[in-house]
Design a protein that fits this description.
It contains six helices and ten strands, in the order ααββαββαββββββαα. It is of the alpha+beta class.
């Protein structure tokens, strides 16, 4: 009986040590498995479905020079951290979303005559369009909402503050551009 009383009298200490241990090991795990912003490319997609882990594995097979990690997330991943999508390098958005958020996107050179424009500048590369009959990376993105037979047009866009779009901004490297071009070639 004494041992049980002693255990419950000190229970708050055990709980505190457990909490500190979880926080410490969570920090260590994040430190080991993550990379600094200059060494990773982050993709956020706003499609009806996404095979994020599989896409990250596929794009991670041949990393651009200086890149250690590629992360792929749906926008729902950032539900509790609203600043996370602002740190992304590449976005896969519907044409309407891209046009609404054009002020945050980098201008890009034309790849396809159907690429969306906003205020006279191209804001992304077409990755899926039913009317144009074009679709890339179908095995990773679900472009059709459940029960729908026609989908929205989807576009690959770049964060204008990304450090991985030297072709467009003149600074940093071109890792995000390389990854986006590979994304457009996926089946």
């Amino acid at each position: 009986m004494r041992a049980i009383k002693w255990f419950f009298a000190n229970f708050h200490r055990y709980l505190l040590w457990l909490l500190c241990s979880v926080i410490l090991w969570g920090f260590v795990f994040t430190l080991i498995t993550d990379a600094p912003k200059a060494r990773k490319v982050v993709i956020y997609a706003d499609t009806p479905s996404l095979m994020d882990a599989e896409l990250a594995d596929e794009l991670g097979k041949d990393l651009p020079e200086g890149i250690r990690l590629i992360k792929v997330h749906p926008f729902s991943y950032a539900a509790f951290d609203t600043g996370a999508p602002a740190e992304a390098d590449i976005y896969v958005l519907s044409r309407e979303q891209a046009e609404m958020n054009a002020e945050f996107l980098s201008a890009v050179p034309v790849k396809d005559p159907h690429d969306p424009e906003c205020e006279g500048r191209v804001i992304g590369w077409l990755i899926h369009s039913d009317p144009a009959g074009y679709s890339a990376a179908d095995s990773f993105f679900g472009y059709y909402a459940q029960g729908e037979t026609v989908s929205l047009d989807y576009v690959v866009c770049f964060n204008k503050n990304s450090v991985h779009i030297r072709s467009f901004t003149g600074t940093g490297d071109d890792a995000a551009v390389e990854i986006a071009e590979r994304l457009l070639l996926l089946p």
